[in-house]
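INTERNAL TRANSFER SHEET
From: sequence group
To: structure group
Subject: Pirin-related protein

Please process the attached sequence and return the structure record in the designated field. Keep the field labels unchanged so the import script can parse them.
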Amino acid sequence: MSDLSTQPAETRCGSATTSRPVRELHPAREVPLGGIRGVRVDRVLPQRTLPTVGAWCFLDQFGPQRIPMTVLPHPHIGLQTVTWPISGEIRHRDSVGSDVLVRPGQLNLMTAGRGVSHSEVSPEGGEALHGLQLWVALPADRARIDPGFEQHLDLPRHETGPLRATVLMGDLAGVRSPATTHSPLLGAELSLAPGRAELPVREDFEHAVLVVSGEVEVDGVRVTPGPLLYLGTGRSGLEFRGAAEGTRLLLLGGEPFPDDLVMWWNFVGRDHAEIEAARADWEDHHGRFGVVAGHGTDRIPAPELPGVRLRPRRRS
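Return from structure group:
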């Protein structure tokens, strides 16, 4: 998905400093996405004081909505996009030749590397669209790899008591996703019935939880839909207490990301010059971004860069 703001804010993402367990609730902010006919999303990453959780650097929740999504071709560099629909379908087309329907329960992973472009369009009259869009920052030695796309239709699961986990990326409790990762990280959707469950996790990972529906107590903190609960590092397990049927949440984790990042529009880079060059290449129709079939000359133009140099910002 694209950040369709015509005046995107600079997001300066520094390397991690937290090295202990914490319990921090970070509120979502409502972000209007011009170009999707008034659609708004709830954005919980990046935060001013929490730019990343492991390599996870962006997390939007969109819907439920019956407004069709129409996101024309747009570019990415330096990241992987993770699309996780909860309801509804999205047609994904990209410059490496992919043309697939994105459906609930299926992981759709696009690696931008040195440059890719893609579009996302939902069918008219379909089920209400609801889902999560995430970005994973690529480490410096992988940031310019060739672009690619993979779709995983059958993901592994782990069950313990009232908790059922679908492992999107990385591994959880000895269960590993087939999705390609470039740094140590974890992404899992958890479904929780009333009751108590524990999950073993890596102590060197930082973790965060986003509740999509219902409510849950995580490590003694009650969490409802909206904010992101950041848990820091230093835990060998997480305790979940479900209070209602239908509780659904996203668990993210990873080694604290070592690199300073600059995020602007749809680009993840290391400095101003890299972002500036990517913007210029997109506007000049440079071959690094390829062509998305089926849209003719339609595409999303890049916004103007701000009048200051983009710089990384370290986490508070």
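Handover comment: The chain has one helix and 26 strands. The mean pLDDT is 91.
Transfer complete.
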